[in-house]
Amino acid sequence: MNAPIPLPSTADILQDALDHIMRTARASSTQTRRLRWIASRAEAALQGRPYVASEHDQPKMVSEAVLQAKYYQLRLANARLRTALAQVAGGATGYLNRDTELAQIAQAALDAEREAQS
Fold first, then answer.
1. Are 56 and 44 in contact (CB under 8 A)?
2. Which of 2, 4, 22, 102 could form a disulfide with 42 if both were Cys (CB 3.0 to 4.6 A apart)?
3. How many C-alpha atoms does 80 have within 13 Å on its Cβ side?
C-alpha cells in the first residue's frame, strides 16, 4: 500500500522560493544594484529579520526631474520632426519630381498629428 506523500508547508515553499530568488540574483552574470538589493532583501527575509531599508543598498529610482528631462527631449525631437515635415510639405527638397510625393506624405503625417491632438 502506498503511503501518501506529505506536502510541504507554506512556510517551506516560501523559504525555498526566497532561497531560489537569492541564489539566482547572486548568480547573475551582470551584478546590478537592483539584483544586489533583491539578493540582500531575500537573505534578510530568510534569516527572519524585518525589512529595514537602511540595511540594504537601495536600487536606483527614477526621479521626477529625470522624467521631466526625458519628456523635454522628446518634445524637442518632436518639434524638429514637425518642422522637417512642414518643410517637406512645402516643397523644400529642391527635387521637383519628388516634391509632390514627399509633400503629400509629409502633409498626411502633419494632418494625422493634428487629428490625434484634437
1. yes
2. 22
3. 6
pLDDT digits (tens, 9 = 90+) for 21-35: 999 999 999 888 889
> What's the distance, Cα to Cα, between the start and end of the chain in Å?
74
Contact between 18 and 42 under an 8 Å Cβ cutoff? The reply is yes
Return the C-alpha cell found at 54: 537602511
Length of the chain: 118
Nearest to 111 by CA among 77, 82, 76, 74: 82
Nearest to 56, CA basis, from 35, 72, 73: 35
Helices in the chain by DSSP H: which ranges? Answer: 10-27, 33-46, 64-89, 96-117
- 50-57 long-range contacts, CB within 8 A, separation 24+: 57/33
Task: Name the DSSP letter for residue 29.
Answer: S
pTM score of the predicted model: 0.46
CA distances from residue 38 to 53, 59, 90 in whole angstroms, order as listed: 12, 9, 55
Q: Residue 96: its pLDDT value, please?
A: 60
